[in-house]
Design a protein that fits this description.
Helices cover 49% and strands 8% of the residues. By secondary structure, the chain is an alpha+beta fold. Helix 1 crosses helix 4 and helix 7 runs parallel beside helix 9. It is elongated, with a radius of gyration of 19 Å.
C-alpha cells in the first residue's frame, strides 16, 4: 500500500496535468468526441453506444456515462480501461505510479518516483513475484537496465533503489531504462540493505 501522504500529493499533481480525455484516447476510445459546452461527449467503450452518451469534463476531472451510469475520476477510468483491454486489474497505487513514470510534467513536480515506500522485507519478496506482462513487453528488458547500470557505474545504493522503486511500481522496462539514463535516485527509500546486497538479492531476468 502506498504512503498516503505521497498518494495525496501525487493525485493533486495528476489531476492538474493528466486529462481524462487523453486517457480514453490512449486506450483507443474517444475518437468520436463532440464538444458540448465544457464537456466532450464520446461513445462509451463499455457498451454498445450508437449516440455518444459519455461526458468528459477535463477541467473538473470527472467523466460520466448517461446510458450505463459508469463514472469517476482519472485514476478510475485508467483502471477500468486497462482491465477491459488487458484483463489485468491494477491497484490504485500502480496507476498513480504509472502516471508518474509516463508523464514528464507529473514526474518533474514530485520529489519521489513512487507512492510506495520500499522496506527490506518487500524488496526481494515483492520483486520476485512481480513480473512484466509478456503481452505488453517492449524490446527493452530488465537485462538492458542491469547492463547499463553496471557499465556506467550506477551501483550506488540510491541508484539501485531508484530502479527497484520503478520496477516494483510496475513501470515497463523501457521506462525504467530511460529514467535511469536520465539520472535520479532518492534518499527517501528506507531499507537496511547495502547496494551490493540489493544487487545480489534481485532477480534481474
Amino acid at each position: 500500500m502506498g504512503n498516503e501522504q505521497r498518494v495525496t500529493q501525487a493525485l493533486e499533481v495528476i489531476r492538474k496535468y493528466v486529462r481524462i480525455s487523453d486517457v480514453f484516447r490512449k486506450f483507443g476510445a474517444g475518437t468520436d468526441g463532440v464538444e458540448r459546452g465544457d464537456e466532450i461527449y464520446i461513445s462509451c467503450p463499455f457498451h454498445l453506444d450508437e449516440s455518444p452518451s459519455l461526458g468528459v469534463n477535463d477541467d473538473k476531472g470527472f467523466w460520466h456515462c448517461f446510458s450505463c451510469g459508469r463514472g469517476g475520476n482519472v485514476v478510475g477510468i485508467y483502471q477500468q480501461l486497462y482491465f477491459k483491454n488487458k484483463g489485468v486489474k491494477l491497484e490504485r497505487d500502480s496507476v498513480i505510479d504509472q502516471f508518474i513514470a509516463d508523464i514528464p510534467q507529473v514526474r518533474a513536480m514530485l520529489p519521489f518516483a513512487s507512492v510506495r515506500t520500499i522496506e527490506q522485507e518487500t524488496v526481494t519478496a515483492g520483486f520476485n513475484v512481480k513480473r512484466f506482462n509478456p503481452a505488453t513487453a517492449t524490446t527493452t528488458t530488465m537485462n538492458d537496465v542491469y547492463r547499463f547500470m553496471k557499465k556506467n557505474g550506477k551501483t550506488e545504493f540510491a541508484d539501485i533503489a531508484f530502479a527497484v522503486d520503478l520496477m516494483l511500481s510496475g513501470a515497463e522496462p523501457d521506462t525504467v531504462l530511460a529514467m535511469v539514463k536520465g539520472g535520479g535516485g532518492t534518499s527517501e527509500i528506507a531499507t537496511t540493505l547495502t547496494a551490493e546486497e540489493l544487487l545480489s538479492a534481485l532477480d534481474w531476468s
